[in-house]
Amino acid sequence: MLDLPDRRLNAYRTDLAEERLRGVVEAASYVSGSPGLICVPVVQMRARPELECGTDTELLLGETVRVLDTDGGWAWVKADFDGYVGYVPDYAVSPVVRSLTHIITAPRTFIYTGPDLKFPTVQALSMGNRIAVIDERETRGTRYFLLEGGQAVIAGHCVALGEPLGDDYVSVATRFVETPYLWGGRSGFGIDCSGLVQLSMMMTGKSVPRDTDMQAKGLGTAINRDELRRGDLVFWKGHVAIMEDEQTLLHANGHTMTVSREGLEDAIRRIGWLYDQPTGYRRP
Known about the structure:
- The structure is a single chain.
- Strand 4 (42-46) and strand 5 form a beta hairpin.
- The protein is mostly beta strands.
- It has helices at residues 169-173, 193-202, 212-218, 264-275; strands spanning 16-18, 29-31, 34-38, 42-46, 55-60, 64-71, 74-79, 85-89, 93-94, 102-104, 108-112, 121-126, 130-131, 135-139, 142-146, 152-154, 158-160, 186-187, 190-191, 221-223, 233-236, 239-243, 248-253, 258-263, 280-283.
- A six-stranded antiparallel beta sheet has the order 20-25-21-22-23-24, with helices on both faces. Strands 8-7-6-3-9 form a five-stranded antiparallel beta sheet, with no helix packed on it.
- The two termini are 35 Å apart.
């Protein structure tokens, strides 16, 4: 049996496949797809168009995708950022790809009905959400960015698109301490270990694979354990942690069910009881 391409990064079914896989996989037809824009703060992506199917990853407001098919309330899409393929509810994808100007930098924030922190909120946003700012206003010393319809966000909770949060992604990752662990999560509402790595690095302008095995295989360069320093990554089978300093790591984990700090040696002993020793160390 021929080895098939990784289904997480390659869109193919017996009836349909993405055009670039013509000659690689057999399908009844091939499509290039049409542009789409994620129009909800966070949406879960699944391997199958079923609510009972577990979450592979999440897409964030303002991220662009290629829509390969829609049927039965689901859209089959491929994310432009990391190439991940899966199904999301079709209401989460807009066919209109609009110009966006800013990205949320706070782990979580809100859209208000207007430029006043005492006004009602209409939506919660996550770090990584992209928005279109059309004006700004100051109310009682607080600066707001105005959105369509007069809604507003705290200006200090976002930066212009293309303006990275420095080059120290670890400082971004620390903002998520005590955020709930969520399998497949990739937002300030819930995040998993590789999602923490990817989102934190994305906010500092780096393009990073989504899953732990992808990161362990192709992110940065391999190093030895005695070389570990701030920003390096420690991998176990199915898990990754970020070194905050030479002795402490930061990771979203199922032990505390949060993003938490843990001593490197303590983590190696604890995790080793179930999943053996680390499989590798890398410097992004």
